[in-house]
Structure formats: structure tokens, C-alpha cells
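Q: My labmate handed me this sequence with no annotations at all. I'd like to see what the chain might look like in three dimensions before we decide whether it's worth expressing. Could you predict it?
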Amino acid sequence: MSDKKIYLSVIMPAYNEENHIKDNLLKTSEIISKFVKKYEIIAINDGSADNTKLKMEEASVEDSRIKYISYEDNKGKGYAITSGVNQANGEYIAFLDSDLELNPSMLRYFLKALQATDADIAIGSKMHKKSKLDYPLSRKILSFGYFIILKLLFNLNIKDTQTGIKLFKGSVIKPICHSLTTTGFAFDIEILATAAKKGYKIIEMPIELKFLRDRSEKSRFSPKIIFKIFKDTLKIKKTLRNK
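A: Here is what I predict for the chain of 243 residues:
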């Protein structure tokens, strides 16, 4: 398969996901193959302390359309995504959370909407009136609180920047990723705020989100991580003001 003919690249970052990552990568490939012929999946092992890298390697052996990138130190989701974008060859590039709480099949509709509206970026939105959500109240409160802060700081005409499924024209996202200053969870807002400032058209899409993790499992959003997200957000505001 010629890299130049790849239509869709799907970037899937993962950290300590040995129990799910192999099956999720293979499932993602199976789903995408139903509506895209030429595609690649780029998994990124963001310095996991478990066997995530091994499971990614096993998936890539079973399915040649699955590639992976791995490094030893945990550098953050933004760094992982950027690493994947740098290696992507697709005309369109998607970000997808590797836990598959968001079904890859939604990318079919994202692609259609992007082409029908001549938009540059399509993002999943938990606040879209047609979205169907099944996840903890604590996550809903956190999302709404962050939305309020982003509205006050950036005045973006976007209701949700953090949902883990997004689709970009490759020609749009690659140069933006080259200039990112944030490597953690706040990287989404830097990408979208930069894109808005450059005049790119962004549309929000309805999603179906189903919380798949054990409710007793330790949250990925500890107070320390939440504080860092807000700190990075303020840094992004300052960076964009100076550009």
C-alpha cells in the first residue's frame, strides 16, 4: 500500500493499556475497513510501565495497517498525538482515544460532514444536542467547568474541546502540531484556538459516549492533573496573545 494513497490516518495514544490495547486496535481497524479502503492506524505508547508496547507490536503483526510508536518516558497525551501526526500520511488525520469509549464508526460521519460543509476540522462534542452520553457525573461536571473557563479565556464558538475524537484535513493539522507548546491534556485547546485564529472552519458533531472503565478504577484525572490542565490552559492563552 502506497503511503501517498492513504486516505485516513487514525492516531491512537495509549498509556498503561495492556489489558485492552491489542483488541481495541484490531477492532478499530475492522470497523474503519468497512468505510475506508486506504487507511493506517498509528498507535503511540506514551512511556507505559506495563506491556502496552508488546501488545501494540502483536496487533501490528496481525494487521499491517496498524503501526506503532513507542518511547520510554511518559511525555503526555499532546506529545503522543504530535508524534503520531508527524508520522501520518493520510489526506485526513483523526485523533481517537484508545479506550474506545467513542466508537471509531463515528469517523464515517465526521468524514461526510467535513466534505459536505467544506470544513477543515470536525470535533466530537458532548454538548451537542444530539449526543448520547453514559459516563460519570464527576466527568460531566469537570467538562462543563472547563467549558466555562475556555469560554471566558478564548471566547471560542465551540462548546466542547476535549472529547477524544477529532478529524482534520492533514494539510491543516500538520503545521499546527509543529508549533504546539503544550504536551499534556490541554493540547486540544491549543490546537483549536490556533486553528480558529488562522480562520479554519470548525464544526461540532454529535457523539455516542459509553463509559467502559471499571467505576472503581483510579481516575486518570487526579487533582494534580486537573491543576496542570488549568495551568497549561493559562499558558496557552498567553502564548496565543503573543503570536
